[in-house]
Structures are given as structure tokens and as C-alpha cells.
Fold this sequence. Notes:
CATH superfamily of the largest domain: HUPs
CATH architecture of the largest domain: 3-Layer(aba) Sandwich
CATH topology of the largest domain: Rossmann fold
Shape: globular
CATH class of the largest domain: Alpha Beta
Order of helices and strands: EHEHEHHEHHHHEHHHHHHHEHEHE
Strand content: 5-15%
Low-confidence stretches: none
Amino acid sequence: MALKATGIIVEYNPFHNGHLYHAAQAKKRTEADIVIAVMSGNFLQRGEPAFIHKWARAEMALHNGVDLVFELPYAFATAHAPTFAEGAIRILDAARCSTFCFGSEDGDIAPFQRSLHLLQQSGGQYEQAVKDAVGRGLSYPKALNEAYLAVATTVPVDEPLADLSKPNNILGFHYMEAAQAIGSTMQAITIPRIIAQYHDDAIPGNQIASATGIRKAFFQSDGLQAVNAFIPETTRDILLDWQADQRQFGSWSTLYPYLRYTILREGPDQLKMIADITEGIENLFIRAATTHSTFEHFMEEVKSKRYTWTRIQRMLTHIFTGFTYSMRQLMPAPSYLRLLGMTAAGQRYLNETKKRMKLPLISKAAASTDPSLQMDIHASNMYALGIGNNQIGSDYDRHPIIIR
């Protein structure tokens, strides 16, 4: 009998006990044989450098319930929610997952299904309302929620809709929207996010904390002791190995000197060609980089009501990596499955399924000249330069991790 796969969309920044629960529940509730994770590379959806590189994070996952890890290409991993979701869903669909499972604040799939149906019946009213709200200066998340609420009030609904003011609900909705848009046959499943929400601090006495809270506790305490309770033993061991190699952990504070240099070197004519740069904000970036020697002070100057912290960080990520509007146009959809690692069960699934997969499987970076893959390699090199780990070019040498 063919192995059945369920898919999850992750960043693992770093892998923690909540992720362990998610992977186990995804497998249990879908009655799947294996779990496939599509994981962001070295730069993430909120416009941040990863805490540690993609290979270490993939290894954490493979020790803790995930059987295959595919990399979400840079162009989608660093995009706003709809594009991020579409890229990830296309990869899971191409890998022949029968289901996908996401964590949400609602924890029930029915409200998402009703919300998706409602917006489909709006006749374009929802899309236009989003555009109008963005035009008035609202951030995209606020514009989406305002438009959603406006449509919801015009149509009588007897049962609850999804709360699209919550970050995990928003992503989950976009996953389902993307699956429907591409005609995927994957069934959507959701599980409730437990104990810690997306931005919550790590609370002593709990065993689950958000990745944001874990990173905050780590950087404030400058050590793993503060976060040991929230992470599996294998995550701790990999982080200890990372420290032993005298590597820095990824953060904008670490990368800022390189970012500042790039902003000041490029100047306004070059910066305005960078993806997501709009409305002359490149001039504000140059003024702030000229004045401020720390990332925190730089951000204090450039943040505004019109631009969310996350949106600004995405712009800065693209400046740091040199990702332009014209480069983005070359990458309209994922064009390969980049394998980062597998378990023995994952390897069996690949052997059984790879001929039926909808995208080519890439296990060696040197085997392809795809522009999206070349961007992933470049982003990895820039990340390695920023954290000073002397692994520039290592994507060409790395083989998929195998955990038996």
C-alpha cells in the first residue's frame, strides 16, 4: 500500500516543543505515514534572518517527527502572507501530500471553510475593499481584516467565521485559499495553537513557548539555560554544537553593519529597484543608515503607521540580498523541490513517489541553474557572510541530511 503523506508549513526558528506537538498531531489526525515539511531557508516571512541556518533547523525537524524537509524558495519565504502561502502549498501539492495541517487560534476547520466560501461569494467586493484600505494607508493585515469584516456584515451568517485578526488564522486562511486557487485535492486540517501564542514571551514553568519568545529569552540571557525547558533535547544539542563552533546566531543586530554598508553604497537609484521598495522610502533608509549605528535605532527612525515593522524588515532583507523587482518576475511559482533532509521513512516515500511528483526533485544545488535556486544559494551565502560562519558556498557542497 502506498505511503500517505501530510504536509506542514514551517520556519522552525528554532524547533521547539510546540512544533513537536504540531508534527505529532498532524500525523495522528490525518492518519498519515509520513510528515513533509516545507521550511523557509535562511531568511523568513517576517523579514528576519534565521536564528540558525536551514541545515541545522532541518536536522532538528528530522529528529522530531518530520520525515522530509523541502526548502521554500527565497522569493516565497520572504513574501507577504498570500504569496508565502501559495508557494508553500504548491510545494506540498507537488510532493503529493494528501492533506496539509496548520496550527490556528480557532482550532476548527469549519470557520475557515465558511469564511472562504463567503469571500468567494462577494463578487470581487472583498478584493476591492482590500485595495481601497491599502490605498488609505492601512497596513496589509489591517486592510485584509477590515475588508473581511465589511463583507461579513453584508451577508447573514448563522455560524462563526474565522477570526482573521489573528496571525496563525490569517496564514491558515491563505493556505486554504491557495489550495483552492491551484485546484489542489489536498484536504485542510487545523489544530489549535496551545499555551503560547505567536508573539508571547517564554514563561518559566511552561514547556511550550513561541519561537519569538524563545529567541527573546535567549538573547536577553545570552545562553541556552533560559530556553532549555521549551525545546527538545536534540534542538538543545544542535544549538550547543552551533555555539561550540563559535558561530553567531542570526539576528538583524548581527547583520546590521553589512545592511548599513549596502544601503549607503547603493544609493537611491539602486535601492528603488529592490523588491517591495516603494514611495521613496529608500531615501528614509539612507538618512537612517547615515545616522544610526544600531539596527534598533535605525528601525525607530524608519517605522511608521503606514509601514509595519514586518513590511520594513522584508524590504531590508531584499536590500541585504540584492533581490530586485526584475528578479522576482523570473520566479512566479516554485519550479523545483529542494530536498534538505529525510528520515528512512521519508526516503522510502521519495523512492515510491518521486516519479509522480509535479516538480523536479533537486538534491544537489550544482545540478540546476534555475534562477530561483540560484537566489536561494546567494541568500545562503549572504547569511553566512552576515553571521561570520565561514560557510560561504556551502550549498554547493551539502548533500541532503539522512536520519536513520
